[in-house]
Model the fold of this input.
Amino acid sequence: MTGNRVWLCHRCQREMVPQKTDFGYLGHSFYADILACPECGLVLIPEELAKGRIAEVEMQLEDK
Amino acid sequence: MSREWPQATASVCPVCLKRIPAQRVRTGDAVFLRKACEAHGSFESVLWRGHVDVDDWTGPRAEPPPGNPRCPTECGLCPDHLQESCCVLLEVTGRCNLACRFCFAAGDRGEEPTLAWLKTALRQLAQPGQTLVQLSGGEPILRDDLPEVVAAAREAGCRYVQLNSNGIRLAEDPGYMRELAEAGLSFVFMQFDGTEDDIAVRLRGRPLLALKQRAIEHCAAQNVGVTLVPTLVPGVNTDSIGEILRFAVARAPAVRGVHFQPVSYFGRMPAVPTDGMRFTLDELLAAIGVQAGEVIDAGHLRPSRCDHPLCGFHGDFVVAPAGGRLIPLTPRRSAECGCGGGPVTAERNREFVGRRWQRPSPAGGDIAGGDLRDMGVFLRRVETHGFTVTAMAFQDAGNLDLERLRRCSLHVFDQGRRVPFCAHYLSAWGSR
Done:
């Protein structure tokens, strides 16, 4: 869980901030507001997103 | 990828239905089934015409025909069978309100089953929480008690209740459609051979297009999904495949998909078929690409993994927010191997088709113009506007291949037995 915690980028030691981020998954393009380092762009995929919507998307894109 | 040719399998004599050895023979890019009966001579049927490489399509699969010498004449699933039931078909009537040129179920169906008999059958066939039952016929909606049959299927624990119908009564009697929906009907498989009345006249004996459109509207009013099922007959409607797809996509989300069935020759048929009277799966793939390339990329249609790859294909799509075009969800077939991995369970296949063919509750709203890159919008759009393009190539006495039959997941419930569809409806062509 990310909750209200502050996350720091390990490499830059900058506080990660919510940012609209584009990413590709299973051949499709999506965006989501996720935490990213304003310096190097490293993103944090929170557990609730991975186990929630991303898992749902994966299920829908799974071949029968 | 290449496999060894010819390939040994087993079939039946189309005249006497005796089990006989057979070979799949590759000639150039095409594949034929060849067989000989001591009493009735030699036979050959085209299986594949080479629009797609057959080795790439079938993959490295090596399943011999079943060893059971009573297959298929005394069929009921036996230990040699390789697939569970994806769908179980129950005939609820032998009556029909059409007299089609082609009908798999045109034989003498005996007495009309009573409601009590059907309730018993449904209790026997249902595996609670799992079974997808197809109520079939004849024309099932000629029964006035069909809502009670649907309710009985639900009470028996069927997860999905599908109605196979020509749609006529669904068009003429919206009140009856409402009763079926309230009883728990999940979705409708509706015979739909083309967008011109001439096609219906030639295949079904009367114009039907206006009725089909009304039937779709009445299903939509009850939030019951409709999948259109064209029987494809060379020279009649194989040039209408693109029109059928455009018609169907334009009517999403009421229409959930198109399930093509190249004509097969059992039950009622106008003549013993020549190869020119057959339409192979790869011809269908090519025709979709040529006739509907702006709607669908046929490269995303993949061989069946639940049934044998020569028995069908499937593609999972979502209708683009602007309409008129299908965005693929299933990955493209790769150049090296279109087979897309090994076989899958019937249960997995059933869940896949069930979630697409059944419409979601309207309570979640409809996202017409959202951005599909937003995962929430994408997920809701797939739920409301998911669209399948599928095909099943049934086998008849001419091209029956027991290796394929062995993987069949569509089973007819017959006196307590489950019989693969093509074995159940297998009918001899008579003396030539």
